[in-house]
Write a structure and sequence with these properties.
By secondary structure, this protein is an alpha/beta fold. About 35% of the residues lie in helices and about 25% in strands. The longest helix has 18 residues, at about 475-490.
């Protein structure tokens, strides 16, 4: 790490609305920043953030007792340690952490990806291609946060601002050159990436999600726009086949590259090859015929978005083309888990109406006899999208509606809200228990069918009324497949799987 700390006076001088407490000398040396009193150690600045459920000012005494060298508060607390007073502690958190750690994002290629769908896949593809290109990489996202080959625990898609800047500093300290970051709308609204410099920022798409948090699509859209409006960005990448992406690209005044039918980067002549896709790629840097290990147009778009981020950041076209054809698959993202079985079973994270539609379209490219799609909606989240999810899954030949993470809600009521959006002409199976729902989806399948298990992807636990239980769609599907195999081999089962 570059920084060895900053005095509280130095930090105060860099924040426009900051002042030192009346009994504060400002000489305290700060070597780390945290919003969590449980993380406090000697030399740490504790920032008391006001949240939805907790007010960090309640934990000031605990932070002081744990050895905090200074506090950042929104009113003087009269403690025995130095205090920095600001108007909005949450807004200051990222700036303070970045300064204490020496602004690490300025010395690495940090590529941020935002959008409703595709963030995880694009970030993983950037990381995969980056390593193929010879970079020492870091990854911050939903499935995992990783420095080189070492996974690091993270509670959110995008960590809280103090954790985020510390993580960037750790990456820099391990000679990381390129960092792929998922930037969620929650992160942008809550300041988790404040004070970060992005070499590249990319936008994938926008569709209904998270309205329980944002309130309206306009507010959700505006949250995404904050990445391009409020941050230092070297180059922006927009998917202009998406209507919001087109609007963003037209409004953005900095260096930018567009991807789409009328964009700077274009894809044509798609041909499905089973577990891979062949297509023609045209860019300002050159054109090439590509065979990439991805399935579905949406995954081709994700791969091309990742490639474009690397191209605009300075990587050579020929090298990016080679890396594009050697992509590592992303766990729980259109992941085939059935091996050579005559019924193909795919697990995917699709949990929005648009994502469900894209997954079904991708499954059709596998030339199945039928597509059987299983979905469930999360509890304590955007209720308005549930009937829309039902309408989307109606595009399959058979729709199986089950639970996802019901949380504090009644899972039967959630299922009924999804079912309310289904076309009555669609064959529907309703099974509230997710494990049994997966079993019934597979029992309804015949040789040549594709079964899509959607919504949870890589997740390995389920929230049932606040009680977390182990549950992995991939393992549940493998177990159900094994049971059907044994049943068919004994000749006693009702399943139709001809194994």
């Amino acid at each position: 790490m570059v920084s060895t700390g900053r005095t509280l006076s130095d930090l105060a001088a860099c924040l426009p609305d900051a002042r030192l407490g009346s009994s504060t000398s400002g000489s305290a040396l700060v070597t780390d920043v945290t919003h969590d009193s449980r993380q406090v150690s000697q030399g740490c600045l504790f920032v008391a953030v006001r949240g939805t459920n907790f007010d960090g000012h309640r934990f000031v005494a605990a932070a002081v007792e744990a050895g905090a060298s200074a506090l950042c508060v929104d009113h003087e607390m009269g403690t025995q340690v130095d205090e920095l007073v600001v108007g909005d502690t949450r807004a200051a958190l990222g700036q303070l952490a970045s300064m204490v750690h020496g602004d690490p994002s300025r010395r690495m290629k940090v590529i941020g990806v935002t959008g409703t769908n595709g963030k995880t896949t694009v970030a993983h593809f950037i990381d995969s291609m980056g390593r193929e290109l010879g970079f020492q990489t870091g990854l911050i996202g939903t499935i995992e946060t990783r420095i080189g080959n070492e996974s690091v625990q993270s509670a959110h898609t995008t960590p809280e601002a103090s954790d985020f800047q510390r993580l960037l500093a750790q990456m820099e300290g391990r000679d990381t050159e390129l960092v792929a970051v998922e930037v969620s709308s929650h992160a942008l609204e809550m300041g988790r990436v404040n004070a970060t410099t992005f070499s590249v920022a990319a936008f994938t798409n926008l569709s209904q999600d998270h309205l329980d948090f944002h309130g309206s699509m306009d507010d959700y859209r505006q949250a995404k726009w904050r990445l391009f409006d409020e941050f230092s960005i070297g180059h922006a990448v927009f998917n202009t086949d998406d209507e919001t992406g087109k609007v963003f690209a037209e409004a953005y005044e900095g260096p930018k590259t567009t991807i789409g039918a009328e964009g700077d980067v274009r894809v044509s002549s798609l041909s499905s090859l089973g577990s891979s896709t062949q297509f023609e790629l045209s860019t300002p840097w050159g054109s090439a015929s590509i065979t990439a290990p991805v399935v579905g147009r949406f995954n081709v778009d994700n791969a091309v978005a990742a490639a474009t981020c690397l191209l605009v950041s300075g990587s050579e076209f020929e090298h990016v083309v080679e890396a594009l054809q050697n992509l590592e698959r992303v766990p729980g993202r259109f992941e085939l888990i059935s091996g050579s079985d005559p019924i193909r079973v795919v697990v995917d994270y699709a949990h929005t109406p648009a994502g469900i539609t894209e997954a079904i379209e991708a499954a059709r490219l596998l030339n199945p006899k039928r597509v059987i799609a299983l979905v469930g909606a999360g509890g304590d989240r955007d209720r308005g999208k549930r009937p829309l999810m039902g309408a989307a899954v109606a595009e399959a030949d058979v729709a199986v509606v089950t639970s996802d993470n019901p949380r504090s809600e009644d899972p039967t009521e959630i299922v009924n809200e999804v079912v309310s959006g289904l076309d009555l002409r669609t064959e529907v199976i309703v099974e509230v228990d997710r494990g049994l729902g997966i079993q019934r989806a597979l029992e309804s399948a015949s040789d040549g069918d594709v079964v899509l298990i959607l919504g949870r992807g890589h997740e390995t636990s389920q929230d049932l009324g606040g009680r977390r239980v182990s549950f992995d769609d991939r393992e549940a599907a493998r177990s159900a497949l094994n049971r059907l195999r044994r049943s068919n081999e004994s000749g006693s089962g009702s399943g139709s799987m001809g194994l």
